[in-house]
Design a protein that fits this description.
This protein is of the alpha/beta class. The chain has one domain: Rossmann fold. It binds ligand LW54GNZ2 and ligand LTPLIIQW. Ligand LTPLIIQW binds next to strand 3 and helix 3. Belongs to the DMRL synthase family. This is 6,7-dimethyl-8-ribityllumazine synthase.
């Protein structure tokens, strides 16, 4: 189902785990900030609506979507959070730069989800034009930031339940994977 056939802002609170004790990091790209601010507001408002105290939501800004990778890495390395949401808006320009930024940030955020124990939620619009971004940041198709917040709560809950049911969960990765230095959180493959 494409976004045009669903409203990104709709969620059923009855299907969402109790989030009042969870802490969330949100890393926001400053590129296309008219859009990213709308996405942030959607995410923040949804977390508050799901009973997350405002003081348990940490926001950092980065210059562009490509920097979301490093920002999220340092967020999860240094802050006590249960999930991180990265927010960006990449809009096609005249050149192939769009392709490389989108692929780079996608792969980078994927790598963080594989290499670390903290879920990182991908709230990065990759649109053909500004209207598509407007439609997905509080416009005709709802707000992808809202969708990302709900995903963050659900993934934080999965992580919490997994640690309860499998307190000594085994490393997932062989050696040689990306090492995130100086992290207070144990890398899965160690
Ligand atoms: N064109 C867009 C960018 N480009 C900037 C890159 O994300 C990055 O900051 C730069 O290459 C320096 O490393 N970023 C967006 O978020 N959105 C765009 O449309
Ligand atoms: C995604 C981008 O970096 C892009 O918007 C930059 O525009 P251009 O390709 O015209 O340089």
């Amino acid at each position: 189902m494409a976004t045009e056939n669903k409203n990104l802002s709709e969620y059923d609170k009855n299907t969402i785990p109790n989030a009042k004790d969870f802490r969330f990091g949100i890393v926001v790209s400053e590129w296309n900030d008219v859009i990213t601010e709308g996405l942030y507001n959607g995410a923040f408002d949804a977390l508050i609506d799901c009973d997350v105290p405002a003081q348990q939501i940490i926001r950092w800004n980065v210059p562009g979507s490509f920097e979301l990778i490093y920002g999220a890495k340092k967020m999860l390395q240094t802050q006590n959070v249960d999930a991180v949401i990265v927010i960006g808006c990449v809009i096609q320009g005249e050149t192939k730069h769009f392709d490389f930024v989108c692929e780079g940030v996608t792969q980078g955020i994927k790598d963080l989800n594989v290499q670390t124990d903290i879920p990182v939620i991908f709230c990065v619009l990759t649109d053909n034009n500004m209207q598509q971004s407007i439609d997905r940041s509080g416009g005709a198709h709802g707000n992808k930031g809202t969708e990302a917040a709900i995903a963050a709560i659900k993934m934080a809950y999965i992580r919490q339940q997994a640690s309860i049911s499998h307190p000594f969960n085994q490393p997932l990765l062989t050696s040689g994977a990306l090492q995130i230095e100086d992290s207070p959180r144990k890398i899965e493959n160690e």
